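[worker-b] picked up task from shared queue
[worker-b] task type: protein-ligand structure
[worker-b] ligand name resolved to S-adenosylmethionine; SMILES cross-checked against name lookup, match
[worker-b] sequence length check passed
[worker-b] input payload:
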Amino acid sequence: MNEILQYNDEASNKLLEMYRTPDVQTQRREFLQYVRPALGQRILDVGSGPGILSAALANAVGPAGWVCGIDISDQMIEIARNHCTEQSWVEFHKAEAARLPFPDQQFDIVVSMQVLEYISDLGTVLGEFKRVLRPGGLVVLMDTDWDSLVWYSPSPERANQILAGWNKHVKDPYLPRTLSRQLGQAGFQVEKPHILTIFNPGYAENTFSNHLIDLIVPFVSQQGTIAAGEAEAWAQELRSSGENGQYFFSLNRYIFSANKP
Ligand SMILES: C[S@@+](CC[C@H](N)C(=O)[O-])C[C@H]1O[C@@H](n2cnc3c(N)ncnc32)[C@H](O)[C@@H]1O
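[worker-b] inference finished, payload out:
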């Protein structure tokens, strides 16, 4: 199997757990500092997932504004709708980033956090972002460069094999290094990007990396490229080495801001 990760029931619920960790809450707060949402604005959240970012945007724009989330996963749309029941000015629709179901110049801001690395036709998607933004509108993106991952393992050969399998969960595991250029090619005025590190220098249950283990194990096990049980053994070894004080995890994400001229 060589498919990217699909957010079905199991993966969606695991992602939701991960997104509730302090690591991801901090990351979301930092991302929002670049979005700077204001009362009354109209914001599109592409690949809105569980809707936690959309809810935060909705709080900022208030009932005079409008937040719209789109996602290709039915499960994610359902989780997001349940998350935002109290905010009538937020809506979620099942849609493809490459075919946004909106007229031109509908939004002040388009955000997409941890989504573009899953996408194959990025030129089309960035063209869609530009089309639905008003002139002067802002796009804010965040993606991971999986080459920046540093994760101690007592069995590095096995860990390398597992993490190489995990890199296939997205279309472009190294997107950030080319994203500024691709935004420029799509006609945006691009700002200097910012780095954001998720750092777990010790083991703890309620962390990004501990929840990441639970997404990696089923994904690489289904690929059939590693022996049965190897991913579980890797996970168990990581957690017990963590309990012995040997844990170390660090991963870089990058935030991109650009304007439609
Ligand atoms: C890692 S999650 C990020 C969720 C959310 N943006 C956040 O950070 O809170 C990626 C999401 O992008 C969605 N997605 C992936 N490819 C997509 C596409 N082509 N169009 C729309 N959504 C997509 C997935 O279904 C998933 O919900």
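[worker-b] attaching auto-annotations
[worker-b] The first helix runs from residue 9 to 19.
[worker-b] releasing lock
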